[in-house]
Structure formats: C-alpha cells, structure tokens
C-alpha cells in the first residue's frame, strides 16, 4: 500500500450550510471531521431558494479555511437543474438560468468547481438529451468565469445521461468551452452503471481516459454501493459496507495520478447507538481510515465489525 500513498491527499465530505452560520458553519463541520477539503450546496439541493450571497458569511469562512490550511472546496449544483429536458422548454430555460446563478455564487464563495448532474432526456432519447445538455452548457459557459462545471458520472437511473463514458465524451465534443468543462467521478455511480471498479479500478480509469481524458477529473465522490454492479440504482453505502469494498476505494483515493484532486465522501449517516432516533455522520471515522496506509490496514482488518453500517 505504501507505494500507492498520495502525500498531498485532499479528502473531506459533504457538509451542510444552514442556519445563521451558513458557510462558516460548513467549514467548522469539515474541521470537526479533520477534513482538509469539503463539498457544499449553496442552498437546499431540491429547490432554488437561496439566501443572498451577503448572508453566507463568506469572509469569516474563508478566514477560517486559511487558518486551517484548507486550500480548496467544491460546490454541488441543485438537483432540479435538467439541461437534458427537451420535452419542456420552460424547464430547460429555468435550468440554464439557475446554472448561471450557481456559477456566480460558486465564484463568490471562492470555489472553482461546480458539480452538475448532466441531465435526463425524459423520453426524448439519449441523442436529443445530449444535444440539449451541450446547448445549455454552451449558453451558461459563454459568460466568462474561472469556475468550471464538473459533469458527474451517473448510475443510469431512468433516462439519466452520463452513465456511460461515451455519453460524457459526446457532450465534451459539442461544448465550445472545453477549458470550462471537467468530470466528477462518483465511485458508486460508476459501479452501478456497470464498470468494474471493485477488481480493476485502474482499467476503469483507463477507459475514462480513452473517451474523455483522466486529466479532466476535477473531483472524486468516494462512496461504496449497496447494489450489485450494473444495477443502475444509485444507493450509497459506507466505506467497506457495500459491493465495491474498502480495498478498491482505498486504491482510488490514493491513486498518485490525481495529486490535489478532492476526494469527497457522501456516505450515509448511521443510527446513534445511544439514541436510535438520531443519526451520526461517519465522516471523521472514514476520513481517518482512508488518510494513511496504517489506518486503512487496521480498518480492513476490522471492517466487518465496525459501528458504521
């Protein structure tokens, strides 16, 4: 394992921006997990309601990040953006408008990466959906910015686009601003889409490299999967508690070919042993397990009896 260990490892988790502390609270949550990067939504991911940028406590959050050597973080766009919807022009138009808004908010917060689900064709077919996604991206990215859009690899539920690397490559080929387009590699999604990252993660990365280029990966989502490979279901599991397994995820986390690329955990919370009505975040434990060969070796020896489930 030592040969694979990446010494500039950027690892964190999804954290919440809520209440009066907003982005400052998000940074504090990340620090409580001993993370050195994190992912945040600029508001609830299920809707477009957003607080004014001046209420997010950005200067205080950035000062706390600097004090603790957090050099970067990533933002995730809301789920309701669907650039692939050619069936409803109003939804497409709203999606472009919201994407432009999120790009500006991401810039104001100090991140350079906005993660985006490519979209779903809702019955119009993959080709039409890809054309629509590219058109929406071309419009949004025509506004100058140093923020890039990282298209997330998808599991393939329903009419989702982006579960195959060829589909992502087709989008890249149609977008006129390739310097503003990147990839978010989600391990659960890639597994559920049918790629074998359990036994051969390097081959899966080589296939992505063939179609899009490994250098396009701007962020990893590190999640185990509750499903068999190819299930197309997208149900995250805790590290070592799913069908991918801790060993393969460790290899991806420490792949030396991605120095400085954030690894973000989105694994499920687990019931509080003292109060089953409450849930606890697994991120401090999972980050510790993945940060070093020694920690992960101990984790692999005990994963079957871990309290994280």
> How many beta-strand segments?
14
Largest sheet: 8 strands, parallel, barrel
Query: Kindly state the mean pLDDT as a whole number?
Result: 92
Report strand order across the widest sheet: 1-2-3-4-6-8-9-12
N-C termini distance: 25 Å
Radius of gyration: 19 Å
Number of helices: 10
Unreliable segments (pLDDT under 50, ≥5 consecutive)?
1-6, 304-309
Beta fraction = 15-25%
Which percent range fits the helix content? Answer: 25-40%
Order of helices and strands: EHEHEHEEHEEHEHHEEEHEEEHH
Structure class:
alpha/beta
Shape: globular
Protein model, in words:
- By secondary structure, the chain is α/β, with parallel strands linked by helices.
- It contains 10 helices and 14 strands.
- It has helices at residues 22-32, 58-67, 89-109, 126-141, 165-174, 187-192, 201-211, 246-253, 283-291, 293-302; strands spanning 11-14, 37-41, 74-76, 113-116, 119-120, 148-152, 160-161, 181-186, 217-222, 224-225, 236-237, 263-265, 270-272, 275-280.
- The protein has an 8-stranded parallel beta barrel with strand order 1-2-3-4-6-8-9-12, surrounded by 4 helices. A two-stranded antiparallel sheet has the order 5-7.
- Helix 3 (89-109) links the parallel strand 3 (74-76) and strand 4 (113-116).
- The longest helix has 21 residues, at 89-109.
- The protein is globular, with a radius of gyration of 19 Å.
- The two termini are 25 Å apart.
- The relative contact order is 0.13.
- Residues 1-6 and 304-309 have low confidence and may be disordered.
